[in-house]
Amino acid sequence: MSAVASDQVIRALTDDGSFRVLTARTTGLCAEAVRRQKVSGDTARHFADLLTGTVLVRETMAPQLRVQGIVRGAGGGCTLVADSFPDGGTRGLVSKKRGALGIVLGGDAMMQFMRTMPNGAVHRGVVSVPAEGGISAALMGYMQDSEQIVTITSAHTAFDAEGHVRSAGGFVVQLLPGANPETVAVMTERIGHDFTDISRFVDSENFDPDALLEEICYLMPFARVETREVRFHCPCSQASILGGLSTIGTEELQSLINEGELLEISCEYCGNEYQVAPDQLRGLIATS
Questions:
Q1: Predicted pLDDT of residue 288
Q2: Residue 142, Cα to own-chain centre: how many angstroms?
Q3: d(CA 144, CA 152)
Q4: In CATH, what number is assigned to the domain containing residue 103?
Q5: Is 272 found in the same domain as 196?
Q6: What pLDDT, on the 0 to 100 scale, is given for residue 86?
């Protein structure tokens, strides 16, 4: 039995300095996030595409930045969250209002990206999410409107007959300053003709982001700059749970203490369960 290929992002530059190209395989992290959030159908597909897109957006930025991608569906019934960290760990969350069946794009659906700077400052950019083109179209709109970078990008997720993620990935092509006009013309024609739908590249258990890179840069000399592994990872911990409880106020903490019961708290991102004893709550009051 062959080993399962790891998720990774490959970063490359064309030799003439016209384009930066990133390709990604995100199959494992998308499969795990979809499984933990217990979603299916179009909601699972859009959720996985957002996870891939958020990984790609973070990889275009300074390596120390954390990036969150958020899609609020039309009517506010469902929200998707992808949270990608500098170490390559990524997690996700699907939140539905009571009665909502799943995410609906188009209308007043919005996509927001937030990147957290090392000093704690947060930069936000917001674009609409069209019904046609979905997550990929919104990603392209975000990069061009909020980041002011001419970008072509696409994300795709394929599912098996049982609704499990079989493969997931995507790419980013960015125009760099001083690009060669002839190279730009060739790349634009090639991307517009062959890569508007990347399902034929991604829809395989053996999807290889390096092969996708070779296809995108066909007949264009390029250099691979870096390959980084990405994965599903949630950084929740007992300490982070206690940190969250410390913000709810002394009176509410005292009420929980008076009940004398172990608190059982599940992380909404990964489902890991934590127990908090009354003595630990007393410690939060003592240090507040």
A1: 62
A2: 14
A3: 9
A4: 3.55.30.10
A5: no
A6: 93
Query: C-alpha angle with apex 102: 100 to 103, nearest 5 degrees?
Result: 115
Whole-model pTM over 0.70: yes
The identity of residue 239, as a single letter, is A
For residue 2, what pLDDT is reported? 43
Domain assignment of residue 98, yes or no: yes
Q: Into how many domains does the chain fold?
A: 2
Does 48 lie in the same domain as 156?
A: yes
Residue 64 CB contacts under 8 Å (≥ 6 apart), including other chains: 86, 118
Contact 111, 89 (CB under 8 A): no
Cα distances (Å, whole numbers) of residue 166 to 47, 91, 202, 208, 239: 14, 18, 9, 13, 35
pLDDT of the residue at 84: 96
Q: What's the rounded Cα separation, in Å, for the pair 216 and 173?
A: 9
- Count of residues for the chain? 288
Adjacent-strand bridge partners of 10: 23, 227
Q: What is the domain range of residue 266? A: 238-287
Q: Are residues 183 and 277 located together in one domain of the fold?
A: no
Q: Is the dihedral of CA 79, 202, 228, 15 positive or negative?
A: negative
The parts of the chain modelled with pLDDT lower than 70 are 1-4, 288
Q: In terms of DSSP H, where are the helices of the chain?
A: 27-37, 41-59, 134-145, 181-194, 199-202, 209-216, 238-245, 250-259, 278-287
3-state helix, strand, coil in the chain (%, to 5): 35, 30, 35
Reported as half-sphere exposure (CB side, CA atoms, 13 A), residue 288 has a value of 18
Residue 67 to residue 116: CA distance in whole angstroms: 6
Residues 114 and 249 both lie in one domain? no
pLDDT of residue 1: 38
